[in-house]
Amino acid sequence: MRDNEVFQYNNITYSIVDVFRREVRVGTGIFNETYPNAVNATYSGILCIPNFITYSDLLWRVVEIGTCSFAYCNQILSVKIGYNIEIIKNYAFFRCYYIENITFEKHSRLKTLEMYSFYDLYGLKTIEFGGDKLQTVGHYAFGFNLVLKYIRFPPSVSFIDEKALRGLELLSRIDFCGVSSSNKDIFARIDQENHLTPTNVMIKVTSRYQSEKFGINDNVNLDNSIDCIFPHALRDYDLQCRTIYHSSYFFYYSLFSIFILMSDS
User: Fold this and answer.
1) What percentage of residues in the chain have a pLDDT greater than 90?
2) Which of 35, 34, 31, 29 is nearest to 7 (CA)?
3) Is the bond preceding 36 in cis, omega lying within 30 degrees of 0?
4) Residues 78-122: pLDDT tens digits?
5) N or C end of the chain: smaller count of CB under 10 Å?
6) Neighbouring C-alpha atoms within 13 Å toward the C-beta of 138
């Protein structure tokens, strides 16, 4: 056995990522956006990506959905993804027009959605991230998912590419339930006019807002009912952070001044 060795398991093609760690990817890992390399283009119904498979009488962990694995598989209607998947590579589900829902298993280890990973999924209605490991959403990762209305990003997300949400004609709400900062606003790269469709998406922040700008590990708790209008959803709280931080600073400075005066007397 060797890295990148290709084999079949339950009518799906896999390839070895790391022999010693016993990790495999879905698909061959070879880029060609015109056809899928994990299954036949006529693969239909519900697609289930397992957590483990067996090959040569050994148990292997499925950690990646490779590039172009299911490109143009227009008969797949639903996708269930195991918790061991850590990365979905570029063009993995490119133009799978009829997928209606994507569900990641609870405690999903997914960290990265590469560019065009879920591009042109015209029928996608729901996507559910089952864990809190996702960090990066790449270029056009959700581009032109025309009927998707709602996305909830887990608290781990730290980077969303400027065009990751381009062309979502019916998108009306994004929930971000995590920690961010004024220096690392995950929505800062997205321009309202050029990178988002439509332009009136609501962002609901239900989280702790961390600011490195106004003090080391300074935290401001936000009311869970606060609704913010795109595109400055998180940045709008700079003034609140500044006010709270400086008020606290003034309070401690005043106590310190009183202590000095008492010592002098």
Assistant:
1) 54
2) 29
3) no
4) 999 999 999 999 999 999 999 999 999 999 999 999 999 999 999
5) C
6) 16
Helix (H, G, I), strand (E, B) or coil at 21: coil
Q: Give the burial string for 145-158 (b: 16+ CB within 10 Å, else e).
A: bbebeebebbebbe
What token pair was written down for 25? 């990817």
CA distance 197 to 181: 25
Dihedral sign for Cα 215, 218, 223, 224, please.
positive
- How far separated are the first and last CA of the chain, in Å rounded? 82
Please identify which residue in the block is written with the tokens 């879920």: 118
Burial environment of residue 74 by CB neighbours within 10 A (0 to 12, 13 to 18, 19 or more): middle
Check if the beta carbon of residue 204 is closer than 8 Å to that of residue 227: yes
Where does residue 110 rank: exposed (0-12), middle (13-18), buried (19+ CB within 10 A)? Answer: buried
Number of Cβ within a 10 Å radius of residue 6:
14
Domain residue ranges in the chain: 6-134
Which CATH architecture does the domain made up of 6-134 adopt? Answer: Alpha-Beta Horseshoe (3.80)
Q: Is 175 exposed, middle or buried (0-12, 13-18, 19+ CB in 10 A)?
A: middle
